[in-house]
Specification:
By secondary structure, the chain is mainly beta. It has one domain. 8% of the residues lie in helices and 39% in strands.
């Protein structure tokens, strides 16, 4: 219980209005600030992290709709250090973390 309280105190979560929706700002243990957004709201080529403390970044690639092959709608996302370009599928409804200034877009490279 005490460790959980320390973790909660470590992450400063602030809500601030952005237009007509609320945006959750999260500060990680390295002192960087991120916005928590839905993966489906990002554009193709946007950079994001799956967790605020993660070292690996991902780039949103293409959409896989729900079908016989895919049991749920997903986005294929490529890790930044993947030299073979395999990628991984992440649920379309998942929440991810982008830079507080806005996501960097690398659509021209994908």
């Amino acid at each position: 219980m005490q460790k959980r309280l320390q973790r909660l105190q470590h992450f400063a979560q602030i809500e601030k209005p952005e237009g007509n929706k609320m945006t959750e700002l999260v500060t990680n243990k390295y002192g960087e600030t991120f916005k928590k957004v839905a993966l489906k709201s990002l554009k193709k080529g946007d950079e994001f992290k799956r967790q605020p403390d993660a070292l690996k970044s991902f780039y949103k690639w293409h959409y896989n709709r729900k079908s016989a092959c895919y049991k749920q709608a997903t986005f294929c996302c490529i890790p930044d250090d993947d030299v073979f370009g395999g990628g991984m599928e992440i649920n379309a409804k998942a929440f991810v973390y982008v830079d507080s200034a806005g996501p960097a877009n690398y659509k021209g490279l994908l």
